[in-house]
Structure formats: structure tokens, C-alpha cells
Amino acid sequence: SKRAWETAFRTDIMKNFSVNQLLFAACLCLSLGNVWGQMPPGIILYQPSAIHLSYSGEASQMIIRWATKLPTNQSIVEYGSLGKYSSASMPVHSAVFQNRASGVQWNFTDGGPEKQNQTLHKVVLDNLVAGETYVYHVGDPEYGWSSKYTFTAMRSDEDFKTDPLKILAFCDMGDQHSLALGDLQEDVASNFYDTILHCGDLAYDLDKDNGQTGNDWMR
User: What is the DSSP string of the chain?
Assistant: First the structure.
């Protein structure tokens, strides 16, 4: 019967867990309930995705863009310097954000029949030191932040005299069957390249399936 099953279930729990463990589990559930209760509705819809970098044309700048499903109160990048070529020697998780920059956001409506909407964000970082590595995350203080990432500011002309500019170029990469992706990831992780050129024919195609193919590819 249902009552017999419930009694057996409770008895089995008491056999396998101490009172302290059960109390800890109960407190944990209450704590999580309080945290979830304080979160704004639909918190997952505000989480940053499709985070990517690009140069602006100014050596001391970096442009950071991302997307959220819904608008947030602010478009913020918090960042800090790890020093010159020091990303391998200083753990990212212990890095300190010394700077904060704000940017703009706007609504984008896909051209497909479903007319899906998302919010795009753009922040420009200024006064970066040539060749220094920076740690950063993006998001909104109320609705949450992305994971931490790093980038290296454009190197100076003096740097290029002793260590030439190195560019990685690729094209014709679809959302599926990207056979070269593993090699590209290993090359980029080695910090060997200064920049990457996307030469076109990406995702096949970005606007396919009401833009979902483009969303998946950018993530």
C-alpha cells in the first residue's frame, strides 16, 4: 500500500543517514529556497551567452559583446590586469577586478517566421596596456555574471620587432561536423596567436531555424 511504502522509505532513510546529516540536508534545502526566492523571475533568461571579443581599430581598446534572452538593467564588464604574459602563472579564479566599464544594449529580432527576440550587449574597454593579459566577466550586478575569461591586449610595435605578429585564419566552419575545432582550440589555448580572422561561411547558416543555428554556433 502507499502508507506501507512511505513507512519503508522513511525507515530506509533513517538507517542510511545520521540525524546530523538529515538536519544538514534540511538546512541546505531551506537556504537554497531562500536564495531562489530572492532571485528575479526568469533569472536564467538574463544569463550572458555568445560572449566574444573584437578589435576596435584602436590598439588600447577591446570590444566585448554578448547576448541575453531578456534585457538587463545594465551592460557591465568588470576586468583587471594579470600583468604582461602572466595568464599561465596566475590562477584566473583568484584574480581581482580593478575596473568596471558600462556599455549599451538593444533588442534584436530574428528575421525568421517566429520573430524571436534577444538582447545584444556591447562594451568598449579603454586604456588597456599593450601586451598585458586581462581577466574579465560580463553581466549585470542584479541578474548575474558570466564565468571568468581572459584576453591579451594588442601588443605594441616594439613587441612585434622581436616577436612577429601571428594570425590564425579559418573559414567554412559549420555548426556541425567542425572537424578542425579541436585543433583550433588547442592552438588558441597555447596563447601562440595574437588574433583570429573569421573569413566567412560560418555555421551554415547563421539565420537557419529562426536563428537557432547562429545562437548555437556563437555559444
Answer: -HHHHHHHHHHHHHHHS-HHHHHHHHHHHHHHHHHHHHSPTTGGGGS-EEEEEE--SSTT-EEEEEEESS--S--EEEEEEEEET-TTTS-GGG----EEEE-EEEEEE-SSTT--EEEEEEEEE-SPPTTEEEEEEEEETTTEE---EEEEPPPPHHHHHHS---EEEE--EESS--TTHHHHHHHHHTT--SEEEE-S-EETTTTTTTTHHHHHHH-
pTM: 0.73
Residues 47, 83 contacting (CB under 8 angstroms): no
Say if residue 50 is exposed, middle or buried (CB neighbours under 10 Å; 0-12, 13-18, 19+). middle
Which amino acid is located at 2 in the chain?
K
Report residue 187 as a C-alpha cell: 592552438
Note whether 139 and 119 are within 8 A (CB): no
Quote the mean pLDDT of the chain. 78
Beta pairing, strands 167-170 & 195-198 = parallel
pLDDT in tens, 106-145: 999 988 888 889 999 999 999 999 999 999 999 999 999 9
Q: Each residue of 37-68: pLDDT tens digit?
A: 344 555 578 999 999 999 998 989 999 999 99
